[in-house]
Amino acid sequence: MIINNILLGFRNTLQPFNLLLVIVGSFIGIFVGAMPGLSATMAIALLLPLTFGLPPASGIGMLASLYLGAMYGGSIAAILIRTPGTPAAAATVLDGYPMAQQGMAGKALGISLTASLVGGVLSSIALLTIAPALGYIALEFGPVELFAVAVLGITIIGSLSQGSTVLGLLSGAFGLLLAMVGMDPITGTPRFTFGLINLFSGIPFVVALIGLFSIPQALRLIEQGDDGTQVISRIQDRLLPAWHEFKSLIPTILRSSVIGIFTGIIPGTGGDTACWFAYNEAKRFSKRKAEFGSGVPEGIAAPESANNAVVGGALIPTISLGIPGSSATAILIGGLMVHGIMPGPTLMSEYAEVTYTLIWAVFFSNFAMFFIGLLFTKGAIIVTRVKNKVLAPIIVVLCVIGSFSINNSYFDVIMMFFFGLLGYVMEKVKMPTAPMVLGLILGKMMNNSLYQSLLIGHGSWSIFLRSPIAVVLFIVSILSILQATPLLQFIKRKFK
Amino acid sequence: MDINKKFLFFLFFTSVYIFLIQIVGYFIMTPVYLFITFMILKSMKLLTNIIVTLVFTIFIYALFVRFLNLPVPMGFIG
C-alpha cells in the first residue's frame, strides 16, 4: 500500500502544473531568501493565501519548494553583503564573505549551491523512507498514544528552543492556553470567548502565524534602519565548482547533511541551529582548523548542506505525527488545516495522495533550486539592495490582505495585528515564539485525545499507564524537562 | 527624524491603517498608507514613491481580486 502511495505521489508531482508550481516556489524562495529582511518562515506565511485556490497538494508543495529555495537564497546575501538573508545562513557569513572578498564570490556561491543540492536530496530521501515507516507505526496509535505524543512535542520544543528553558516552556504553556479558546469540541461549552462571537470557533491558526512571524519582523526592520554602507561583492568567476574541488568536500557535505536531517527531525530546532552545529563539527574534523573564518570551502559547504537538509528532516515528524519540526513546517500544517486536512497520523493514510505528492515536490524542488540558482543567482543580487524602510510597509500590507482572505473576516485582521504585537513583545523579553506556535497546534489535539482516552478508560487516568508506548513517551517528556533543571548538572557532577 | 521617532510613527500609522481599512476599504487605504509611510520614512524620491505605490496596489488588486478571487475588505466602495 505504501509503495502504491509513493508511486501515486510521484505521478501527481510530475503533472506539468505541479512541476510549474515547484519551479515558481523555488524561484520565489531564492529571491526571498536573498533579501536580508525576509525570512523563509515569513515568506511562507505571507504567500499561504495564494495557495487557497489551488489543490492542497500543489499549493503546499509550492510552499515547501519555497522553503528549500530560501535556504539557498539566504547564502547569497551572506556571501555577498555579509548579512545572512535568513537566520539559517548565519554561519555561512564566516567563510563565505572572506572568500568573496578574495574575488571568488562565484566559487563561494557555487559551493553553497552544490552543497544545498546534496543536502536537500539526501534529506528528501530520508523523508521518503523514514516518514512512511514512522507513519505506519503511528497508525497503531490510539488517543492515549496521541496524547503522549502531544505532551512530548510540547516539552521537547519548550526545553530545546533557543534561550531560556523556563521561557520556552512558558511560551508552550501559553500556546496551549490559547488553543483552548473557543467552543469545546466535545461538550460545546464556550471557553475564554469573553462573549465575542468571533472567538467561538477558536483562534484561527494561520492568522496567528501570519501576525507572529511577519509584524515583529516589519517592526524590527524599521528599528534597525538602513546604514547604507553596504558594499556588494561582484561575481567575477564561474559558479560551478570543479570536480576535484567538490570531491574534497564530500565528507563534510555528507556529515553536515546528516546533522541537518536530525536537527530538523527534533521539534523546535531548525536551520538556525543546524548551520552552527554543522559548521562547528566541520571545524572540529578539519585538519586546517586555524584557517576557518578566512574563506575555506568546508566552512561554506557545512552550514549550507545542513540548512537544506533540515527541510526534509523537519517534514518527517510534521507529516507522520502532525508535530511540526520547525516554525516553517508549522505554517505548512496551518495551510493543510485551511484545506480541511487535520494534522496527525491520518496524513499518511487518509490523505496519502496529498502527503506523498508533497514529499515528491520537496524532492524535485532540490533540482529546480539548483538550476534556478545557476541561472538567476546574479539576478538575485538586485534584491539584496532593497531597503528596510521599503520592505516594512509592504510586509504590513501583505499581512492584512492575507489574514483577511482566510475567513473573509475583519476580526481576523485585528487578531493578526494583536499576535504581531504579542510576538514583538515576546521577542523583546527573549521568549521564543516557536513553542507557542506548537502549543496552538497541539493544544487542540491534546484536548480531543485526552477526552477520548478518558472515555475509553471510563474516567480513570490510569489508562495512560496501561499503554507501553505512551509510558515511554511520557518518560522521555519528563527527561526532556529534567535535563533543563539543575538536577542534571547535579547528576553530572556526581558521576565525574 | 531619528530612528525611535520613525519607529513610533510606523507603529502608530500602521495601527491607524488597520483600523481604517474596515471603514474606508483596502484599496483606498493601502496606497495612502504606502505613500505616506514611504514619504515620512524617506524611503524614496517623490516620483518613485508614486510609481511604486500605484504599481504595487494595482498588482495586489490584479493578483488577489482578479486572478485568485479572494475576498478583500472593500469598505464603502464595495
Task: Describe the protein.
Chain A has 20 helices and 2 strands. By secondary structure, chain A is mainly α. Chain A has one domain. In chain A, strands 1-2 form a two-stranded antiparallel sheet. In chain A, β1 and β2 (190-191) form a beta hairpin. Chain A is globular, with a radius of gyration of 22 Å. Chain A starts with a helix and ends with a helix. The mean pLDDT of chain A is 87. Chain B has helices spanning 3-24, 26-40, 46-67. Chain B starts with a helix and ends in an 11-residue tail after the last helix. Classes of the chains: A mainly alpha (496), B mainly alpha (78). The A-B interface holds A 49-50, 52-53, 218-219, 222-223, 225, 387, 389-390, 392-394, 396-397, 400-401, 404-405, 408, 410, 413-414, 417 and B 3, 6-7, 10-11, 14-15, 17-18, 21-22, 26, 30, 33-34, 37-38, 41-44, 52, 56, 60, 63-64, 68-73.
Shape of chain B: globular
Written as H for each helix and E for each strand, in order along the chain, the element string of chain A is: HHHHHHHEEHHHHHHHHHHHHH
User: What class, by secondary structure content of chain B?
Assistant: mainly alpha
Count interface residues per chain for the largest interface: A-B, 26 and 32 residues
Number of strands of chain B: 0
Measured as a percent range, the helix fraction of chain A is over 70%
Poorly predicted regions of chain A:
none
| Largest β-sheet summary of chain B | none
Distance between the termini of chain A: 51 Å
Q: Outline of chain A, from the CA principal axes?
A: globular
Number of domains of chain B: 1
SS element count, helices of chain A: 20
Low-confidence stretches of chain B: none
Question: What's the alpha carbon Rg of chain B, rounded to whole Å?
Answer: 14 Å
Main β-sheet, spatial strand arrangement of chain A:
1-2
